[in-house]
Amino acid sequence: MGRTLFDKLWEKHVVSGKNGEPQLIYVDLHLVHEVTSPQAFEGLRTNQRAVRRPNRTFATMDHNVPTKDIFNIKDQISRKQIETLQENCKEFGIRLADMGNENQGIVHIIGPQLGLTQPGQVVVCGDSHTATHGAFGSIAFGIGTSEVEHVLATQTIWQLKPKTMGIHLHGNLQTGVAAKDIIMALIAQNGVDFGTGYAIEFYGDIIEQLSMENRMTICNMAIEGGAKMGMVKPDQTTFEYLKYREYAPKNIEKAIEYWKQFFTDNISDYDTIIEFDVSSLAPYVSWGTNPSMAVPINGILPKISNINIQLAYDYMGLKPAIKATEIPIQWIFIGSCTNGRLSDIKEAAKIMNGKHIAKSVTAWIVPGSRTIKHEAEKLGLDKIFKDAGCEWRDPGCSACLAMNPDKIPAGIHCASTTNRNFEGRQGKDARTHLASPAMVAAAAIHGHFIDIRQKEVI
Amino acid sequence: MEAIKIHKGTTLPLMNNNIDTDQIIPKQFLKNILKVGYGNHLFHDWRFLDNGSPNPKFILNRPEYKDATILITGDNFGCGSSREHAAWALKDWGFKIIIAGSYSDIFFMNCTKNGILPIVLPQIAREKFAQLASNDEITVSLLHQKVICHDRIYSFDIDPTWKQKFIDGIDDIELTLKQEHKIQSFEKSIPIFE
Ligand code: SF4
Where in this chain does the record put each Aconitase A/isopropylmalate dehydratase small subunit swivel domain (chain B) (predicted)? Predict the structure, then answer.
């Protein structure tokens, strides 16, 4: 019997412990942000412990950053968290992409962008969307604050080895259908907990054709299907992406040789397999209050078959049997670690080019990092958005979780390229509709969702 | 961490599935830099009306449930964000045990770090607990891996290592640092491509 990509990665990182029991796993890269780290550093101080490997730790601030004017943090408590991170990084000798620094941005965007995230690694961060980094062929997962403290102190983490699930993506993707739609459809069809207890590997022709950015979008949302980890085997696309990045190995050819050992031997090695033919896949939009409550754009909203659906309709102010295209949109948000990369911003700009958003719509475009912002500006994309009537903002998590001043008002339907449509996620009583960047951009122009596969409607 | 061996307490049912950590503790309360004080904000958006007064319909606000230490709930409890604040808030409120259909993996780990015992039992058992009166006690024996409710006994599974940690209430980091030599020798074996 062979081994899966995940098995090989796992075996390379076991420091101690037997199979079937929690094992001590070595962490190659620990990403830190301001929200889930203060109590961890405090714990180190109380116990007079140091950070074991500052050179394997990298910090930035993202969740609290106001994206209209980043240097003007009005919320005193947000400011306190940001300052606490600055002080902690100084005291413990940790690299920090500080406010306004060219490298500052959403933690899951800057890790890959800087070449910190690499194949063959174990990557952790006090944030559930750490799954994103699995796109490089690494074990990457979110951890709680106690675990952050544990990793800071020991560079290791106790974990019970999960089971493995292979998701085979094959067929032909129609024009207008995006990586986001693949993962949204998988969750809509299999539920928000189908991946609980599993490490998922996405494989197949479709994955091989996708860019690193798109692979990241898919792995990012593995957690919305319950899986702590989503991953893709490293290949030429991965290696090309990493070449010349600031923190990528200098001797990259040698590293590539090493990385090439990480792949699944036989599909029969997975504990479970999901087959998914993307050929008939339509763009997806969410209508409810968890990511599985989503329908294809040519579909209608489901009937009320249980209390959870009833509660979701009550919150969203929608009712069964209306068409997905009839969902009214008054706000749009393009950004986040799911879809805030340059390629996402380009997709949205393509749709907005030469158009204007509907009068009733407010539109925020929030690049995932300062570098992305500057690259987009070099391409003149900011101008396309501004001419279309959108606000072009500074990088940060922004309205993805609305912990900062960037909140969607109560009762407003917001088409959003983010990953969670939970109650109150984007602001108290705000109504989130998840979709791909192109779908969200098109919704801004029309004031409701449209099927972007039909060229004539754009 | 406080040790748990046997716990006797009353229950509070909140039977929805997929209760996410954004619901358990909304983000505006994550800005604190301490580990305590989150209990006041537990389930905030369900617990308080728009004018800030407690929602009398929400079960956590009912005085007869104020001493409940065992939360009975649905499937996939604690999904979503990794925020440990969710575990801190439940603990701060006074919950010591959760009995759900399943948990998100990250939330489960956060419970193990904070002395909240996350138990998995089938719906049939949970529905029975959900019907108990607010002053009706049940007993959870971690030692024997059993929940005892009147004349019924329900067994549950738990990984032996996590079980021992709950029983001993020990600090993980201390334990790991005892393996320093193993970590050191592991570090020597990591390939570096400078
Ligand atoms: S962009 Fe959203 S999902 Fe991603 S790290 Fe920030 S808050 Fe979390």
Answer: 1-123
Count of CA atoms in the C-beta half-sphere (13 A) of A259: 28
CATH code, domain with B185: 3.20.19.10
> pLDDT tens digit string along A270-310?
999 999 999 999 999 999 999 999 999 999 999 999 999 99
User: Is there a contact between A79 and A403 (Cβ–Cβ < 8 Å)?
Assistant: no
Residues of B in contact with A127 (CB under 8 A): 81-82
- Give, rounded to a whole angstrom, the gap between the first and last alpha carbons of chain A: 52
Q: Which residues of B touch A49 (CB under 8 A)?
A: 173
- Tell me the CA distances in angstroms from A80 to A72, A83, A121, A147, B181, one per residue in order: 13, 5, 32, 22, 38
- Ligand 1, residues A32, A35, A127: which to mutate, most atoms within 8 A of Cβ? A127
Q: Which among A81, A160, A290 has the least Cβ separation from residue B18?
A: A290
Range of the domain at B95: 6-189
Question: What would the pLDDT profile of A94-139 be if each residue is shown by its tens digit?
Answer: 999 999 899 999 999 999 999 999 999 999 999 999 999 999 999 9
Q: How many domains does chain B have?
A: 1
Q: For residue A419, which atom of ligand 1 is closest to its CA?
A: 3
Range list of H helices, A114-170: 145-154
* B194 with A251: Cβ contact below 8 A: yes
What ipTM was reported for this prediction? 0.90
Instruction: Give the total residue count for chain B.
Output: 194
- All domains in chain A, ordered by first residue: 5-274 (3.30.499.10), 285-457 (3.30.499.10)
- Identify whether the C-beta of residue A154 lies closer than 8 Å to the C-beta of residue A52: yes
Q: How far apart are the first and last CA of chain B?
A: 42
CB A195 within 8 Å of CB A226: yes
**A228 vs B33, B106, B182: nearest CB:** B106
Beta-carbon separation of B173 and A228 below 8 A: no
Q: Which of A11, A39, A45, A407 to mutate to test the interface with B (most CBs of B within 10 A)?
A: A39
